[in-house]
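Section 5: illustrative case.
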């Protein structure tokens, strides 16, 4: 008797979700993508075995479909707002979920996350109260950042350097918060790092750590322009902070899944400010697959179907001490209509280019500058040394061009690797 093909329901069909579809298909799994958007706005629907135009919040209808189609597992990937619907659908249908709604809510709220860090002796970015700022009618630092506590993708983040702009910036940030809450932090002009952890049955391993390079706008926040793995702060991070972070995650009761954290770093310490209990847009699993033959994406797909991240202890293979140098280059464009994308075919055959992922196609308008919506493409690269990586990034820069209706190159910022910092 022929074995029934396992079925995976993928919540959300944006460009990044195409990774989930192609990876699951490669594992022999039948894929179904659902969200409220048409195929034009949900490219993962186009490549899935099946697509549903059903909102993630329509629990009753999705539950009926899940039962009727004998779905074996549910997964979501890269968007914070999908995590709680994911947990609820898994609960209603008795399917495997790597966390519950309460655990997700702790990690989604920036203020709760910072409090958890403080309780575990993990330094955080200095924070200020609205009342104190208004009472003194002056900023507590030369520059402050205002963030919605429950927004992602750099949405609603405002930079203030003059008290006269404070009220307007506060109103802008509040408009992006469902809870109607913000946090106000000191603007940190220091280095930035991101750490990825894998959790398996309560065991926690550090999978990767990278240096983050940021494209900053004058008023509307910032967005990642480039990542370099492994971080030049790797050994120091493991020595100073890694154990405390693992203890904090264990105290939260987190058992399975994948998460990332972000922190600033200077000569004194690491200052944590955010985490995500999900896959990140940096897609670090491309690099860990190449380096250690291990993929957090495959682990999450496996967990959705079986309730187990892997059949063996992930810690045996997981290691942030990469022998090669890796980079993700974000192609940041102005908020204009894309008339033409040039050099894509040439880029894909360059040695060292592991993956090129497009968020937009010709005819689309690029989203708001200063948010992840202005990332038109992400290019993942591998090199034997930092010097080779510098040359490879220059080759990418000379190959890929995003052209506007006026015939101008729309690319606003190309990651410039500061070679001197790694020599």
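Designed sequence:
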């Amino acid at each position: 008797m022929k074995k029934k093909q396992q079925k995976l329901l993928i919540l959300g069909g944006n460009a990044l979700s195409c990774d989930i579809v192609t990876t699951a298909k490669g594992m022999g799994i039948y894929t179904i993508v659902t969200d409220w958007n048409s195929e034009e706005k949900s490219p993962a629907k186009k490549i899935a075995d099946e697509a549903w135009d059903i909102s993630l919040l329509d629990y009753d209808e999705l539950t009926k479909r899940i039962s009727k189609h004998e779905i074996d597992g549910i997964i979501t990937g890269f968007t914070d707002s999908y995590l709680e619907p994911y947990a609820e659908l898994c609960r209603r249908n008795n399917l495997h979920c790597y966390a519950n709604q309460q655990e997700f809510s702790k990690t989604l709220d920036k203020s709760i996350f910072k409090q958890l860090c403080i309780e575990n002796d993990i330094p955080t970015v200095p924070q200020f109260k609205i009342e104190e700022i208004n009472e003194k009618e002056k900023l507590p630092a030369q520059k402050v950042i205002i963030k919605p506590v429950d927004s992602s993708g750099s949405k609603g983040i405002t930079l203030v350097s003059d008290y006269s702009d404070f009220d307007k910036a506060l109103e802008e940030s509040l408009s992006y918060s469902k809870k109607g809450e913000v946090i106000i932090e000191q603007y940190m002009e220091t280095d930035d790092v991101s750490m990825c952890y894998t959790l398996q049955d309560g065991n926690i391993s550090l999978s990767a750590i990278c240096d983050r390079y940021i494209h900053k706008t004058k008023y509307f926040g910032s967005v990642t322009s480039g990542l370099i793995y492994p971080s030049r702060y790797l050994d120091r991070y493991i020595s100073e902070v890694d154990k405390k972070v693992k203890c904090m995650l264990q105290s939260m009761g987190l058992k399975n899944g994948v998460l990332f954290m972000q922190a600033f770093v200077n000569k004194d310490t690491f200052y944590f400010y955010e985490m995500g209990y999900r896959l990140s847009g940096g897609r670090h699993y491309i690099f860990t697959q190449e380096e250690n033959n291990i993929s957090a994406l495959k682990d999450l797909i496996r967990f959705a179907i079986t309730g187990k991240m892997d059949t063996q202890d992930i810690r045996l293979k997981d290691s942030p001490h990469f022998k090669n140098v890796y980079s993700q280059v974000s192609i940041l464009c102005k908020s204009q209509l894309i008339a033409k994308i040039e050099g894509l075919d040439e880029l894909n055959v360059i040695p060292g280019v592991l993956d090129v992922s497009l968020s937009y196609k010709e005819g689309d308008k690029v989203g708001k500058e200063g948010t992840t919506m202005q990332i038109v493409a992400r290019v993942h690269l591998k090199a034997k040394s930092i010097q080779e990586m510098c040359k490879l990034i220059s080759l990418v820069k000379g190959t890929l061009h995003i052209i506007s209706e006026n015939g101008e190159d729309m690319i606003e910022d190309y990651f410039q690797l500061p070679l001197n910092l790694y020599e």
